[in-house]
Design goal:
Oligomer: heterodimer
Strand content of chain A: 5-15%
Distance between the termini of chain A: 37 Å
Number of strands of chain B: 30
Shape of chain A: globular
Order of helices and strands of chain A: HHHEHEHEHE
Mean pLDDT of chain A: 75
Structural class of chain B: mainly beta
Largest sheet of chain A: 4 strands, mixed
CATH architecture of the domain at 78-182 in chain A: 2-Layer Sandwich
Helix content of chain A: 40-55%
CATH superfamily of the largest domain in chain B: TolB, C-terminal domain
Number of domains of chain B: 2
CATH topology of the largest domain in chain B: Neuraminidase
Mean pLDDT of chain B: 91
Number of helices of chain B: 4
Radius of gyration of chain B: 23 Å
CATH class of the domain at 78-182 in chain A: Alpha Beta
């Protein structure tokens, strides 16, 4: 049963992966910033990460940049966005999660923290649980795709750390989000 | 009645104007209280200034009167200067006080003791029945003026309404100013606030231990929600739950020996019991849904909680030892944050209506009848006063977080604001023992 599910999932992912990559990045995804604080610290250890890079990228144009922060690499995309009160992962984010799962599979020492977030409407505690549900969903998919349990922690920030301020639907949409942070970035 | 309500409005307006004028001058984060509604039949009470109280600024009787009026159940009468000024030892001319339209009368005095402390004595009289209702003498230091006044107000409130007063209780809440979060404790009237915890990361869900000596809360200082218990006397705190995933929504059992919390350590937010020292974790719910916001019934037999097991967040109830849950709310698609009244007879919670407004609702657990108590649209975190009379909650007015309180009959309303900050996450503390 489980094998069938995984096979079906991989089939879906393969279908998604054949789509042009820019399609999975709607407006708002690209101005992500959680990578930036981490990017500063990674600059110091840049040579280390570059070594890792070559394996993951199969000789791509990595140069001194980390695969995780290179804007042209899908691994630099770290955010998954949701509809109101929803926690199902939209198809457009599956290639992103697949790429991170592959990276974790190839780098057993790498660890990620998945932070689930919600917009500010409703109960703070219910939003902690809703953010957790979102983060757990991303974690579950990473594990299905080969990441190991001890590489992934899913936590929730609820509505407490909004990326966008304000009470517009646009701001809310930015805040209904999971971020994938690698160790050293949080 | 007409003139009374006009006077009430002008009085409320004066309070508001005074607040607006003073607000920029206040450097501290003291809560200001504005009364925005009152009960239908307020008891007219004459509180005669106590001779000698000028030695105890800001004065005992002004605080007693403000307390009683804030409850929405009393109307303080203006008392002209009387010569000689009566004290608790004076003979009461009931007919004269009746002619002043007082139903109740408070007389008292303040004396300096040889040891430098003060003695406050007062008596309460039922003017209609022409009978004394009792009195008390307190010995106090100069910094106990407010505490003493609150006790006098509690005494008067209980004698005249038959229920315990809450003027001596305290409230906890979180103030956000810029990037700074402060967990504060203040008197129920918003005065004498103290900061128990300041952090650059969010603090939510403060919950008073039944003895009023400790607060459980959730802090994000470790970049994820972690449950702490904080001792208010010495400011010491310890981690109660910091498992993998999120740790949140603490609620004390009525005997103070357990906390119910929501943990995601086994996947998904589920409800657990844990000892206040962090030992003895025991899982109570086993669902693939969200189960959070536990709250004990006052008899300790049940836990009310929020779950989306039926497809939308609704309130359920289960035995406090776990087991089959029963759905409690049915109207609407979003009912969260259950808080049982101290008498166990009703349930306050937040309900989202068809227009998307989040409002305080009150469910009569016997009849199943639901009453929406507020007309605001961003209400959160309801909290009963320990006598069950008022419900304190957070809401947003003009883009700013404020605390409001509404009586459980919906008639009396108060608003508590802090200058230059957002206030949220209120929790009304227990009776002082």
């Amino acid at each position: 049963m489980r094998a069938i599910m995984i096979a079906a999932l991989l089939a879906v992912l393969a279908a998604c992966a054949s789509a042009p990559t820019q399609e999975q990045a709607p407006a708002g995804v690209e101005d992500r910033s959680p990578g930036q604080p981490g990017a500063q610290t990674q600059g110091i250890g840049g040579s280390q990460v570059t070594g890792v890079d070559l394996t993951g990228q199969k000789g791509g144009a990595a140069a001194s940049r980390s695969a995780l922060t290179d804007p042209s690499n899908i691994l630099s995309k770290r955010s998954i966005y949701y509809d109101f009160d929803q926690y199902d992962i939209k198809d457009e984010y599956r290639p992103l999660i697949e790429a991170h799962a592959a990276y974790l599979r190839d780098h057993p020492d790498a660890k990620v923290l998945i932070q689930g977030n919600t917009d500010e409407r409703g109960s703070r505690e219910y939003n902690v649980a809703l953010g957790q549900r979102r983060a757990d969903g991303v974690k579950k998919l990473l594990l299905l795709l080969g990441a190991k349990e001890d590489q992934v922690e899913a936590v929730s920030l609820g509505e407490e750390k909004p990326k966008a301020q304000g009470t517009t639907e646009e701001a809310y949409a930015q805040n209904r989000r999971c971020d994938i942070l690698y160790k050293g970035e949080y | 009645m007409q003139s009374l309500s006009v006077r009430w409005i002008s009085r409320a307006a004066a309070v508001l104007v005074a607040f607006l004028l003073l607000a920029p001058l206040l450097a501290r984060a003291q809560l200001s209280i504005e009364i925005t509604g009152a009960g239908a039949n307020r008891i007219p009470i004459a509180i005669v200034p106590f001779p000698g109280e000028a030695a105890l600024p800001p004065g005992i009787t002004s605080i007693v009167r403000a307390d009683l009026e804030r409850s929405g159940l009393f109307r303080g009468l203006e008392v002209p200067p009387l010569i000689p000024q009566p004290t608790e030892a004076s003979n009461v001319d009931y007919a004269e006080w009746r002619s002043r339209l007082a139903d109740a009368l408070v007389l008292g005095s303040v004396a300096t003791r040889p040891d430098g402390r003060y003695e406050v004595r007062f008596r309460l009289f039922d003017v209609v029945k022409q009978t004394p209702l009792g009195g008390v003498a307190y010995t106090l230091a100069k910094d106990q003026v407010r505490a003493t006044a609150h006790r006098i107000a509690d005494y008067i409130y209980e004698k005249l309404t038959g229920e315990k007063g809450v003027f001596s209780t305290r409230i906890a809440y979180v103030v956000k100013r810029g990037n700074r979060y402060e967990l504060q404790i203040a008197d129920a009237d918003g005065a004498d606030e103290e900061t128990a915890l300041a952090s650059l990361e969010p603090i939510i869900s403060p919950a008073w231990s039944p003895d009023g000596k400790r607060l459980a809360y959730v802090s994000f200082e470790n970049k994820k929600p972690v449950v702490y218990v904080h001792s208010l006397l010495d400011g010491k705190r310890h981690v109660v739950a910091n498992f993998k995933g999120s740790n949140s929504a603490p609620a004390w059992s009525p005997d103070g020996t357990k906390l119910a919390v929501s943990l995601s350590r086994d996947g998904g937010s589920q409800i657990y019991l844990i000892n206040p020292d962090g030992s003895g974790v025991r899982r109570l719910t086993y669902t693939s849904a969200i189960d959070t916001e536990p709250f004990f019934s006052p008899d300790g037999k049940y836990i009310y909680f929020t779950s989306d097991r039926g497809g939308s967040p609704q309130i359920y109830r289960m035995p406090a030892s776990g087991g089959d849950a029963q759905r409690i709310t049915f109207d609407g698609s979003y009912n969260v944050s259950p808080r049982v009244s101290p008498d166990g007879k009703s349930l306050a919670y937040i309900s989202r209506n068809s227009e998307g407004k989040f409002q305080v609702a009150l469910l009569d657990l016997t009849t199943g009848q639901v009453q929406i108590l507020t007309d605001s649209d961003r209400d959160e975190s309801p909290s009963f006063a320990p006598n069950g009379r008022m419900i304190l909650y957070a809401t947003v007015i003009n883009g700013r977080g404020v605390l409001s309180a509404v009586s459980s009959d919906g008639r009396v309303r108060q608003r508590l604001t802090v200058n230059a900050g957002d206030v949220r996450e209120p929790a009304w503390g227990p009776f002082i023992q």
